[in-house]
Amino acid sequence: MARAGLTVDRLVAAAADLADEAGFENVSLSALARHFGVKDASLYSHVRNLNDLRTRLALHAGGELIDRIAAAVAGRAGPDALAAFAGAYRAYALDHPGRYAATQIRIDQALIADSPAMRRTAEITYGMLRAYDLDEPDLTDAVRLLRSTFHGYCALESTGGFGAARGVQASWDKAVEALHLTLTHWPRERKNDD
């Protein structure tokens, strides 16, 4: 493929595909240069370095993930919204393992603040949790509970970590139901009366 037409967006899209095919840890500038039939050095006019490429990939994948979640939760509230949110999250993680792995890297907070996808993620997540009437710091704690539960389940499922005879979907459904019950009966942060 000729170098003409090489853009940051094309590099990130190719990196996303490579991540899903070969694993996020195998995304490299050399692999992308081979894919496009160019020398490694020609990529540096589009990305600063591998970290820049991986950060862009993480933001791209985060945008894809929240788009899928937003479509799933549209018009839903309460336990239906939670189940739709959880299902879309899990489906993305399983359908796009490399892209999903990219969403788990640590990104500079300034980049997160400037990212429309990351702002949208917060809006949709907090919007879905609005039905549970949580205030800070409980809201932050609830978001952390959901993320760690969803991520842990998906990580274990993707590596075949569930060996029991019970279906994985049935256990997932119970986990989401348990999260709904937990959110409904959330142990509220007590205000200090001092």
TrEMBL record:
Spans traversing the lipid bilayer: none
UniProt cross-references to PROSITE patterns, sorted A to Z: HTH_TETR_2 (PS50977)
InterPro entries: Homeodomain-like_sf, HTH_TetR, MT1864/Rv1816-like_C, Tet_transcr_reg_TetR-rel_C_sf
Residue ranges the UniProt entry marks as DNA-binding: 28-47
Lineage: superkingdom: Bacteria
Pfam family, one: TetR_N
Record keywords: DNA-binding, Transcription, Transcription regulation
Gene3D superfamilies: Homeodomain-like, Tetracycline Repressor, domain 2
Stretches assigned to the HTH tetR-type domain: 5-65
Gene Ontology MF term list: DNA binding
Name of protein: TetR family transcriptional regulator
Organism taxonomic ancestry: Bacteria, Bacillati, Actinomycetota, Actinomycetes, Kitasatosporales
